């Protein structure tokens, strides 16, 4: 299927993504879109709510180009699902995991140029309460690691996630999780619970390596209580996605996953805190139109 004929093209840019990298690239992206015959409206967001509302106001014949990190893309996705617009995500953040999963070029200008030959497809979206996500929702070790990464400003790119992971490794302890997978209940004394749509996070780590954006399911990967050394080995194996066979790691697939714990832990999705346990996570098959 070829790209849509758009009534409008809206370029939504996060001024803080990638330490300002997205904003710096926005002029070049704007010029590339003009050269493709589009008339892009540039919107520099002042919040996630703003980004979501801009995308929600776009209609089914409109194209929303989001230039930023996974957090921005997730909020624009939520708006695009509501309004029916086509989304074209471009890399402008530190991790850029959503565009990796879509095989979009890692350079914003190259990605914008590729839109001239891009095709439209439908992909699944995850939902936690009123929030959507496209990558991974996670709680436990990853909650601590994400918090540290988000508070770290002196590192750029995926290194910030490695730093967060090292520090979180020293602070994480086992929790008791109560997980219901499509109606089947289980209890886990463990370190981490991850629910993947695209399955990628942290600048390329493949935490849910079997996850596909268009299979109509979410992938569940849990890590039981293991030694700190064994957990460190699991983390290293998540980069190539070879950790599923490690001791303590379990997997599954579902449409609906309910997660609770023995304390009110924060669930992160696409790098941002989105809810406090207990939560219900659902898959919305084919809910998003993307041009990539």
Tell me, rounded to a whole number, the average pLDDT. 91
What does the overall shape look like?
A: globular
Q: What Rg do the Cα atoms give?
A: 18 Å
Q: Which range does the strand content fall in?
A: 25-35%
Tell me the structural class: alpha+beta
Count the E strands: 15
Q: Could you give the distance between the termini?
A: 11 Å
Order of helices and strands: EHEHEHEHHEEEHHEEEHEEEEE
Give a short account of the largest sheet.
15 strands, mixed
Which residues form runs of ≥5 with pLDDT under 50?
A: none
Total helical elements: 8
Residues in helix, %: 25-40%
Description:
This protein has 292 residues and is an alpha+beta fold. It has eight helices and 15 strands. It has helices at residues 21-35, 48-56, 70-83, 97-101, 108-114, 141-151, 159-171, 228-238, and strands at 9-13, 40-44, 63-68, 86-91, 120-128, 131-133, 136-140, 175-181, 184-196, 218-224, 249-254, 256-261, 266-269, 272-276, 279-291. The protein has a 15-stranded mixed sheet that branches. Helix 1 (21-35) runs parallel beside helix 5 (108-114). The protein is globular and about 55 Å long. The mean pLDDT is 91.
């Amino acid at each position: 299927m070829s790209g849509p004929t758009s009534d409008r093209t809206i370029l939504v840019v996060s001024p803080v993504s990638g330490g300002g990298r997205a904003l710096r690239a926005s002029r070049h992206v704007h010029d590339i879109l003009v050269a493709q015959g589009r008339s892009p409206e540039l919107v520099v967001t002042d919040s996630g709510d703003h980004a979501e509302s801009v995308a929600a106001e776009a209609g089914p014949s409109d194209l929303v180009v989001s230039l930023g990190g996974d957090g921005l893309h997730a909020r624009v996705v939520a708006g695009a699902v509501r309004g029916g617009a086509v989304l074209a995500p471009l890399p402008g953040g530190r991790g850029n995991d959503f565009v990796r999963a879509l095989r979009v070029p890692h350079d914003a200008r190259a990605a914008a140029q590729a839109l001239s030959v891009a095709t439209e497809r439908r992909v699944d979206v995850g939902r936690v309460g009123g929030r959507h996500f496209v990558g991974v929702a996670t709680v436990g070790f990853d909650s601590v690691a994400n918090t540290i990464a988000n508070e770290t400003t002196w590192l750029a790119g995926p290194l910030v996630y490695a730093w967060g992971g090292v520090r979180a490794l020293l602070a994480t302890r086992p929790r008791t999780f109560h997980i219901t997978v499509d109606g089947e209940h289980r209890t886990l004394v463990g370190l981490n619970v991850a629910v993947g749509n695209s399955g990628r996070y942290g600048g390329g780590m493949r935490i849910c390596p079997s996850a596909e954006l268009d299979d109509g399911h979410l992938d569940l990967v849990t890590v039981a209580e293991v030694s700190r050394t064994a957990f460190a080995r699991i983390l290293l194996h998540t980069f190539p996605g070879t950790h599923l066979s490690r001791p303590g790691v379990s997997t599954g697939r579902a449409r609906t996953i309910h997660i609770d714990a023995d304390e009110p832990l924060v669930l992160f999705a696409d790098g941002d805190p989105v809810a406090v346990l207990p939560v219900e996570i659902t898959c919305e098959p084919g809910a998003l139109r993307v041009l990539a």
